[in-house]
Design brief:
- The protein is mainly beta.
- The chain has one domain: Sandwich (Jelly Rolls).
- Helices cover 0% and strands 56% of the residues.
- Strands 6, 8, 9, 10 and 12 form a five-stranded antiparallel β-sheet that branches. The protein has a four-stranded antiparallel β-sheet with strand order 4-14-7-11, with no helix packed on it.
- The protein is elongated and about 60 Å long.
- The protein starts with a strand and ends with a strand.
Length: 154
Amino acid sequence: MSTIIDGSAGITFPNSTVQASAGSVLQVVQIKNTTQASTTSTSLVTTGVSATITPKFSTSKILALVVCGGIYAQTQANYYSLYRNSTNLSADNLGQLYCNTANVLTNVTFNILDNPTTTSSTTYTIYFNASSGTTYLNLGNGGVTTIILMEIAG
């Protein structure tokens, strides 16, 4: 049995698995969603927008890049978070929109580096809430929400 070290591919172990150099991007998953969602809930609820990735290694990290598009708010605060399966990845909200004037249409972006420690299929879902009134996701022409998941070798 031999171990092969290749500067571009990483290390191939005797069981034929390849472990890339730490920090290397192993795979990328991207979703775009234009389905309108809304809530009046003051608790975090799902937007229905999610992306799924199956990490190659349990030591990998997942970098999630999120753009919530077509956010419409009425004189209120809106909060956004990302869940891995059923776990909220932030004790605080990852994104927030507060407007002190009526009727704002904008985007909210946030990023998080997660350590799921699994090689099982993993789903990341955007959640949101409204402090008062109704908040919308993907409202109007061009309202697009995007999630990009990158597996980073650990």
